[in-house]
Amino acid sequence: MNNTDIGSPILNISIFAAFVLVTLVVVLRASRNNKTAADYYAAGRSFTGPQNGTAIAGDYLSAASFLGICGAIAINGYDGFLYSIGFLVAWLVALLLVAELMRNTGKFTMADVLSFRLRQRPVRLAAATTTLAVCFFYLLAQMAGAGGLVSLLLGIDDTVGQSIVVAVVGALMILYVLVGGMKGTTWVQIIKAVLLIAGAFVMTVWVLALHGFNLSELLGAAASVAGEDVLNPGRQYGVSDISRIDFVSLALALVLGTAGLPHVLMRFYTVPTAREARRSVVWAIWLIGAFYLFTLVLGYGAGALIGADTITSAPGGVNSAAPLLAFELGGPLLLGFISAVAFATILAVVAGLTITAAASFSHDVYASVIKKGNPGPGGEVKVARITVVVIGLLAIVGGIGVQGQNIAFLVALAFAVAASANLPTIIYSLFWRRFTTQGALWSMWGGLAAAIILIAFSGVVSGSETSMIPGVDFSWFPLNNPGIISIPLGFLLGWLGTVLSSRKEDPAIAAEMEVRSLTGHGAEKATSH
Amino acid sequence: MSNDARAASRIDFEKVEASPPFHDLKKRHRAFVWPLTGAFLVWYFAYVLLASYAPDFMATPVWGNINIGLLLGLGQFVTTFAITTWYVSFANRRLDPLAAEIRADLEAQEGVAR
After folding, report:
1. Which helix (H) or strand (E) holds B63?
2. Is residue B50 packed enough to be buried (19+ CB in 10 Å), middle (13-18) or exposed (0-12)?
3. Domain for residue B6, yes or no?
4. For residue B44, which residues of chain A lie inside 8 Å, CB to CB?
5. Would B69 be classed as within a structural domain?
């Protein structure tokens, strides 16, 4: 199938342009009150739980999870579904162990909480490094996805054209984050989440209606096209013993990574209280859960109505399942809508990552480490804005550089780093009084290094035809997902570093952190204008 | 050098931490979240391991084309939604009122200290 005969690129671009126009107006209106750091990083802590929960869903349901999971279910059936379950169950870790306690003890960034009762500069530096690493991997994956979408949706196949579109997406994102700060970014995510979930809902009802609202009939139709095994686990991950262990490793990173993703954690500071942080997560869980149930129907629907062969041979490959299904159901108009939402998704997720990375650099590295806590009036926000531009430009250059590269593993790597380097220190800081600076540093640096080194020497980087660097082979790590080694290592190093510490931390501050985390005493209040 | 997320306070937090109401709050919180976290992680990994190592069992048809694997997968959604609802109702009933009480007490203490 030639990409020019599905849908109309002009219609797709027009709908996306309308989205950009509407969100730009909203961002400009929202940016009027961006004066202080609390306004710029945390939207003045003025969002409600339901608003923030919707924004979290908008942040979390990236193009990878929408297009990727639909495609994975269409091609690999049950194994794609298995993937989405890890992404959902992970939210319970955030709900039960992290969200409210983080909200009560931090101000803007993850490092605020981790360094609360430990030595400031080394802990902040380590936490900022892991934050930037996670944001960078995630950002690159999103930008690479943008290129693939361009060829599918806009009919642009040449490298120059794709690069221009990546640059336009990047420039728009810089504009949003620069002008709108966290408030503008949040509204973009809310609007996008509503459009995405509504669009997926309509398509889900449509697919079910075509199969008499009978899930069994839909599954039967998918199985008759692709073979009985799409309904059973194992098509993708059950190939060998190594692939099974690899899947368990991935499952571990997914379920423990979410609560350590810095751009998710930062969203908890945009609400006024811990109770609203809890409501945020509850809304996020319902929206994300509903969405993944939709993708189950959409994935099998695409498998049944379009067929795996047509999907894999279409431009964009696996990612084209959802757009092709939209075209099959609702013609060019629905395809245009879904395409525009997919672009909006990339824009919103990239914006959320950029503001997180910028906040971490200016608040943790610039203000606390370089300026030793005295950045001067307005200095921090100014540095944050400069960082936004720098990260945006890096994302554009990186996004153009990785076009056509097989870097789908980067999202899984971001989750593995979050679970290995961030989560152990977060959990120990919040729940283990004896935890020390040395434990935090060993866990963060060790977890980060382990995840990256194992990936660098795995088959995804070298050693096979589908590797990032084909033709050379320096791989010795048999798995594609480092989590099963690096996550226990992160926890172990945190414990070991603590019990081997000669220096004890101040018990008064540990007591203060514990009291504040559970009662919300002294927590940052909403700013009023 | 101090953490700028930590406002200066004259409250003796070690005393607060040792006080019976706070001790009670901490116990209630931890006695709820940790066993539940353990339970959902065990249930999740049991499911992942079944899907990885017992695909034939998961493929057992139950009704039409719906097999055990799909039902267990949907079961993960159900338990996630159920745990969420349970925790919120627990926190609203058993944690929030006690936390608000201790917080009000701390704010009163701070008022006196100033």
Report:
1. strand B61-63
2. middle
3. no
4. 85-86, 89, 251, 255
5. yes
Question: Any idea where the domains of chain A sit in the sequence?
Answer: 3-519
At residue A390, the pLDDT reads: 93
Query: Could B25 and A518 be called an inter-chain contact, meaning their C-beta atoms sit closer than 8 Å?
Result: yes
CB contact under 8 Å between A368 and B76, yes or no, is: no
- Give the count of domains, chain B: 1
A196-210 burial string, b = 16+ CB within 10 Å, else e? Answer: bbebbebbbebbbeb
* Residue in B with minimal Cα distance to A93: B37
Residue B97 lies in a domain: yes
Which A residues in the span 280-299 are in contact with B, Cβ-Cβ below 8 Å? 281-282, 285-286, 289, 292-293
The arithmetic mean of pLDDT across residues A333-341, rounded, is: 86
Question: Minimum mean pLDDT among A292-301, A401-410, B2-11, B104-113: which range?
Answer: B2-11
Select the more confidently predicted residue: B1 or A399.
A399
CA distance A439 to A424: 10
pLDDT above 70 covers what percent of chain A?
97
Say how far apart CA A453 and CA A417 lie, in whole Å. Answer: 11
| Of the candidates A406, A398, A496, A384, the residue with the CA atom closest to the CA atom of residue A443 | A496
Q: What is the mean pLDDT of chain A?
A: 88
Interface touch B107/A521, C-beta < 8 Å: yes
What single letter denotes the amino acid at residue A324? L
pLDDT tens for B46-97 read 999 999 899 889 989 898 888 999 999 999 999 999 999 999 999 999 999 9
Does position A234 have pLDDT exceeding 80, yes or no? no
Which residue range is the domain that position B71 belongs to? 15-109
Of B3, B26, B52, the CB nearest to A248: B52
Say yes or no for a CB contact (<8 Å) between B59 and A82. Answer: no
> Is the model more confident about A33 or about A100?
A100
Q: How many CB pairs under 8 A join A and B?
A: 174
CATH of A3-519, one of 2.60.40.10, 1.20.1730.10, 1.10.1530.10, 3.30.70.360: 1.20.1730.10
Q: Is residue B5 part of a domain?
A: no
